Amino acid sequence: MKIDYISDLHLDFYVRHNGNEIKYKRNTVEFLETLLPDELGEVLVIAGDISHYNRQSYIALEYFSQVYERVFFVTGNHDYYLISSEQSKKYKNKSIEREFELDRMIESFSNVTRLFDYDVTEYEGVKFAGSTNWYPLTEFKDVNFFNSISNDSNLIKHMSISQCNYFESLCYDDLDEVDVIVTHVPPIIIDSHHKHGSTSCYLNELKELNAKHYVFGHCHEQNIYEKVDSKFYINALGYPNEWTHQMNPMDYEREKRIEFMKQWNKIKSFEVNN
Question: Which of 76, 98, 113, 254 has the fewest beta carbons closer than 10 A?
Answer without folding.
Answer: 254
